[in-house]
Amino acid sequence: MRTVYEISHKDQSGNTWLTLEERPESLQAAFAVAGHPDETQWFLWDDPRWRLTEQARLSTGQDVIIAPESIPETDAERIELAAKMLLDNGSFDGDHHKMWTIDQALRLLLGDRYEATIAEWCSGEDGPDTYRWDTGIAP
């Protein structure tokens, strides 16, 4: 299993989080890509996510969060991550949270086959949009 780092920042309005496409493979590289290579400008905000310190946010006008993402490379790793996803998030109340958990587990299990599998599932006797797949809302 390998780890990449997702970098998100607030847009100019300060209301919406945007995610960079680039996903560095080390935390130090993620700090650099985020434009703040100095480790002292970061703190462990919501384990395991890193956020710019308040001082760095105020001095630059930026708000950035870096989150590790595990990328499974074998079927056993996919199963392990999907089981962890289901166990960690399956107990949250609300159908929308449970649907998100199911969707995320399927993404882990299916990998590159996710989009095609969901499209096939949505197809039915009335065409490609016979059924609707709900991706839910993260808890």
What does this structure look like?
- The structure is a single chain.
- The protein has a five-stranded antiparallel sheet.
- The protein is built from five helices and five strands.
- The protein has helices at residues 27-33, 54-60, 75-89, 95-110, 114-122, and strands spanning 2-10, 17-19, 42-46, 49-52, 64-71.
- Helix 3 (75-89) runs antiparallel to helix 4.
- A hairpin with a 2-residue loop joins strand 3 and strand 4 (49-52).
- It is an alpha+beta fold.
The residue-averaged pLDDT reads 93
The fraction of residues assigned to DSSP E strands is 15-25%
N- and C-termini, Cα separation: 25 Å
What is the count of DSSP helices, taking H or I runs of 4+ residues? 5
- Write down the Rg: 18 Å
Number of strands: 5
Sheet of most strands: 5 strands, antiparallel
Outline the low-pLDDT stretches: none
Oligomer: single chain
What structural category do the secondary elements indicate? Answer: alpha+beta
User: Overall 3D geometry?
Assistant: elongated
Spatial order of strands in the largest sheet: 2-1-5-4-3
Element pattern in H and E: EEHEEHEHHH
Share of helix among residues?
25-40%
Keywords:
139 residues, alpha+beta, 5-stranded antiparallel beta sheet, 39% helix
